Input
Amino acid sequence: MSWNRVAVVGGGLIKFGELFEQSYEQMAAGAFAAAVDSVDEGFEPSQVEAAFVATQRGTLWGQEGIGGNTIPTAIGLAGIPCTRIENACPSGSDAFRVGAMAVASGVHDVVLVIGVEKMRDKSAEEGLLSRAAAGHPIFTRGETAPVLFAPFATRHMHEYGTTHEMLASVAVKNHHNGALDPYAHFQNQITVEDVLASPVVCTPLHLLDCCPQTDGAAAVLLVNADLAQRYTENPVYVAGFGVATDHPYLHEKSTFTSLKATGMAAERAYAMAGIEPSQVDCAEVHDCFTITEILDIEDLGFVDKGKGGVASLDGETSLTGRIPINTSGGLLAKGHPIGATGVAQLVECWWQLRGDAGDRQVETRNGYALQHNVGGRGSGVSVVNILTTDNG
Amino acid sequence: MSPAVQILAVGAAAPSWRLPAADVGAAWGRGGRGQAAVCAPDEDTLTLAAEAASRALDVSGLQHDIVDGLWWGTSRPPFAEGPSHAVLARAIGLSYNSAGALCAGSPHSGMEALLGAADAIGAGSARVALVVVSDAIVPGAGTGFEARAGAGAAAVVLVSHGGAASIGARVTRTHAFLDRYRGDAETETRDLYDPRLFREEVFVPTLRELGDQLAALDARAWSLPDPDGRLGATVAKQLGVGTPASAAVYAQLGDTGAAAPLLGAIGALDAAGTVAVVGFGGGRATGVEIVAKEPVSGAAMVASALAGGTTVTYPEVLRARGQLVASGETVQMGVPPASAQFVRGADEMLGLLGARCVDCGTINTPPSIHPHCTSCGSTKFVLEPLARRGVVHTFVVNQTMPAPFVAPLPLAVVDLEDGARVMLQGAGDGSDLEIGTTVELVLRRYAYERGVPVYGYKVRAIEEQSS
Output
């Protein structure tokens, strides 16, 4: 390979939740400190050569535009090179990919990737729901976040017989995992009955089929693999990544049973890592809604097309199942602070591969963990990152 | 000799809501009988006009772009000043050089539109003229006529030859008297100051005088104004003409204002004979004779177009009319409704255009955001109007909306008959939609913001279902 291998030597996040008491800057400083503290052999913040920050939308806390300069000041590193990456819901995972490329290219040897998102400084109506009035004045009017995924649920149920119970089983499993994750927004377990009894948000999705609005921040430290041993005896490496795009309007989709961008991004990431889906030990995937996780595990190749609902109901994706999915609680229970989400998922993958995941630790026979996000207009942006313990 | 003025086809439309008069009466300590048709929040006089016009043009068999002019009568156009006529013409798909006029300001404007169009045909300046009359009255809350204030639309396609009926004699009387009115910058129509004064000194004498002249025509059916639910019958009795044809329309829809004279008459054009049409309002009364040689296309459909409707409550109607307003902020469109996107998008949003790829046939919608074909990447397109029917591929009903949206809000991905795929809102509450449902596209008001009504198409189930 013509590029430098990249190692993850540190990662951390703050407890996700409705963090009304913390500013954007305070959340960022907390996540950065957690990442620094996690480095086995110690890490001096001044060693950071460049930072890539993922924040999807500043308008949720009154900032029309956020450049790269807010974070360095917030974390005490004013002056360093810092670039903001905005790429819809995969912003955090794409910032990781870009950070990894900065190290892989040899331009930088030590890079911070940090995701920070303030989701709850505004009311729901003036916050996320207001996107119902954004976008095209006719062709996307009324398109709140569930509308990007619920039509896929309607069609998946129609074509494959996926049921409300199958959808609900995803939320039940992820809340179970979230109750084992001290960083998760929700710490309670739920039942299928709870999901089905919760109010309908957007047919066919109930409230508990939907992830919450969560504030949060997460950070990872990437280094040139040749330097990894300075920081830890137990590094994790970037095995591969892929990003793909699909048309930005729902009516441009050719299928409503698959998110094509996810399949393309996965194919690229698997090819780069040189592995098959069956070699992945566990995965953090984008479960903004229960249907999304069902689409994900099909599009990522973990189950056959159309079988995602049955596999979820049968426990194939539980902590002890064939392919554990969203061991952290996922977006449904851990929360979805958009820019931080992907970075936090990568921290979970890093923990699982190092055996640091505590009560939710899964078996990692092959030493591969996969992280995935999908989103944006028409759910048309997807990023897949694959980490490994294999030092190549 | 000037050309004859003939009627080729007619159409009608009613809004989707019905308000029982008893509901209104109960709120004000009164009784009430009957019902009135009321616009849902996404309907208004323009969407009703578009629907009636499209139906009339459809049964006429004419291409929409050969219409020489649009004469639109409505007492309350969507803009007090603004592009009301242009927006309607574009939504109906008339040509860019179509002529015509907007007649507004009183319920009499419907008759003014009919005669304006007839004169254009008579003078030879138009060969095909489209007359649309529509109204969606917003009465003052608590007024005596509130429970009868209705909404509806009628359309007539006029031609110089080949029609089944013709426009005959006409007569007009004026009496500069204040009846129902709305002052400049007022939003609600005021009731009569003194109903007895109006009846004795204005309405009955004026109509009597007019009617006597028309009575000589020996019409087989009459459309007579009925401002209060009694005066129509009073005048009919004095004229000795029996129950007017318009009575059934008043009973179903209430007082449809500028639409009332033609709405009350066109259903009677389903048989040969003479129909007398009388309109009143704004200090003027006009009577027109329509002579049918044979049934007029579309006349038989009028009754079904006016029937039905969903019964709603008085508070829902007050909210739809903008008389019951939630406190707090509403979310605004990402782009102001007078900004560049609407200027660029007027044709593709109102005319519903698609860009058909010359190389692979894919229809890309809307054209302005697709410089390259989504299927093959080509840059060669032919713009064409999209099909107005299709089948639901998938859909949702959004139950969680910020103001000014009101849940439930259906959104459907629809495969149109021409192969285009679109995503549009549903026109109802979504209960009519399933995967596979056959739907039609209807013009609706998507938003009303900063004084601008924003129009676009929504989907609505139609009776025939695909297999």
Summary: Chain B has a mean pLDDT of 94. The CA atoms of residues 134 and 153 of chain B lie 4 Å apart. Chain B has two domains: 6-320, 340-461. Chain B touches chain A at residues 329, 331-335, 337, 341-342, 345, 349, 365-366, 369, 374, 393-403, 405, 409, 411, 413, 421-425, 430, 435, 446-447, 454, 456-457 (CB under 8 Å).
